Amino acid sequence: MFEKIERVPGDAILGLIEAFKKDTNPQKVDLGVGVYKDDQGNTPVMRAVKEAEALLLKNETTKTYIGSHGAPAYGEVILPMVLGDGSPVLEAKRASATQSPGGTGALRLAADFIATQLPGKDIWVSDPTWPNHLGIFPAAGLTLHKYPYVDAENRLDFDGMLGALKQIPEGDVVLLHACCHNPTGFDLSRDQWQQVFEVVSERNLLPLIDFAYQGFGEGLDEDAYGVRLMAENLDEVIITSSCSKNFGIYCERTGCLIMVAKNHEQMENVRSQIAIVARENYSNPPAHGGAIVSEILHSAELAAVWREELTEMRDRINTLRRDFVEALKPYELDQKYACVAEQRGMFSYTGLTPEQVDRLRDDFGIYMVRSGRANVAGFSHDNLGYLAKAIAAVN
């Protein structure tokens, strides 16, 4: 039966990993893979995570299933982190948390829920968006469309975005990046969020907010501005959250699907359907990552350590952005790439063309995806000079 099955190309980023490993250039730089790195190029385990795991190892008494919605203790800490302490949404018991295998798992739960419970609703994503969005939603049977986000000059095309949102059929789903837009790094200002909210409200659109990088932009609460604006002022919102980046627990696959309904009764109805979707996908989510997050956020001491570490990571990335632009000054390219300092999160749409990216890889051992998206966490104070020189050479 398998003899007619064709081989398909592998994931482009995974291909970059293999090519980078084989490169013998001692100055090679990996700007492709979307994980945080320190100045030594490592993705460290956070101190708070290590301490939480030690406590879990000491106190854990069972390995039993945690249920389709996950561990209640996990939801207890994720909901206020995302929606805010004292959130009116939480006070009204309008929100439900379902632990998921990473933010990707939460997106698939959302996609299946929309497909089964909101038939005929299409989904709209930014152009560009995280490539996996383009696979997840059609795989669930949804029709996917795009709205403008970045223009030909590598600038945020907010007018184009807003104009497109005004044309989306009423009742459709619109996916919005809460912060640290992947892959571009261009985020909406508070005023722009307000304008988007007004269009979403007027056209009765259902926002699905992908919140994968909370704390990596401006701060935990600052990054949640658009999420909370929508959740507190609309009857229905879907939020997908991830702990991969802000807790550095990528391989533990720890995410959350948050459903916000008009009232508590409707939330319970929706929650019952999400349990079925989860059951049909993977039955129960993995427990360990959620237990780490719960252990940290239920402890004032560990939570303080974690917040300090997260601040250090965020500040390092934002500093590297500014220093990168500064390193280009001797080549008179600082204005051309000034957008890198203005963007937020781990990723940057640099404006480099596919041909320039190819030259950086072939001539200098600098690896990034051909769209020009770079993982800023791959910058270091040791390689900024080399990067600037190489970019000047291909411009």
Order of helices and strands: HEHHHEHEHEHEHEHEEHHHHEHEEH
Q: What amount of the residues lies in strands? A: 5-15%
Shape: globular
The whole-angstrom Rg is: 21 Å
What is the terminal separation in angstroms? Answer: 51 Å
Largest sheet composition:
7 strands, mixed
GO cellular component, one term: cytosol
GO molecular function, one term: L-aspartate:2-oxoglutarate aminotransferase activity
Protein name: Aspartate aminotransferase
Keywords: Aminotransferase, Pyridoxal phosphate, Transferase
Overview of the molecule:
With 395 residues, this protein is α/β, with parallel strands linked by helices. It folds into 2 domains: 113 residues, Aspartate Aminotransferase, domain 1 (Alpha-Beta Complex); 234 residues, Type I PLP-dependent aspartate aminotransferase-like (Major domain) (Aspartate Aminotransferase, domain 2, 3-Layer(aba) Sandwich), CATH 3.40.640.10. 44% of the residues lie in helices and 13% in strands. The protein is built from 15 helices and 11 strands. Strands 2-8-7-6-5-3-4 form a 7-stranded mixed β-sheet, with helices on both faces. Strands 1-10 form a two-stranded parallel sheet. Strand 5, helix 8 and strand 6 form a beta-alpha-beta unit. The radius of gyration is 21 Å and the shape is globular. 45% of the residues are buried.
